[in-house]
Design a protein that fits this description.
With 124 residues, this protein is mainly α. The chain has 6 helices and no strands.
Length: 124
């Protein structure tokens, strides 16, 4: 079962008609204007996308009202949906950076505190 944050929903809050294009925009991170424009062009040229739109509008669930805490969390989940492996690499990289910075702080603190250095040496 998908996490609520990785599912496709109709976004009625930002909807113009049924919320399908705004839901796809939320899911992909693409601006809803461009999706709507593409939908209009495809409907005029092909016709069948309008039927697909109404089918998606009937099948998709409404987006939960408080799915994301803020805009940053929404962007994070859009990146997860677009490329989970890249997102995992970014998280690992951030943790490595935090670990390196903590090690630098520890080294600085220990090197400037001879008493603490002596206590650590006694423990070894």
């Amino acid at each position: 079962m998908n996490s609520p944050r990785t599912s496709l929903y109709r976004d009625k809050h930002n909807a113009k008609l049924m919320g399908v294009c705004s839901g796809i925009a939320d899911y992909t991170g693409i601006d809803a204007f461009w999706l709507r424009l593409g939908m209009v062009v495809l409907t005029v040229t092909l016709g069948w996308p309008l039927i697909a739109y109404f089918i998606a509008g009937a099948l998709l669930q409404k987006k939960p009202p408080h799915l994301y805490r803020d805009n940053q969390e929404q962007q994070y989940w859009q990146r997860v949906r677009q490329s989970p492996k890249r997102t995992a690499r970014e998280i690992r990289s951030r943790f490595r950076d935090i670990d390196r910075r903590l090690a630098d702080v520890e080294t600085y603190y220990v090197s400037n505190n001879p008493r603490l250095t002596a206590e650590i040496e006694q423990l070894r």
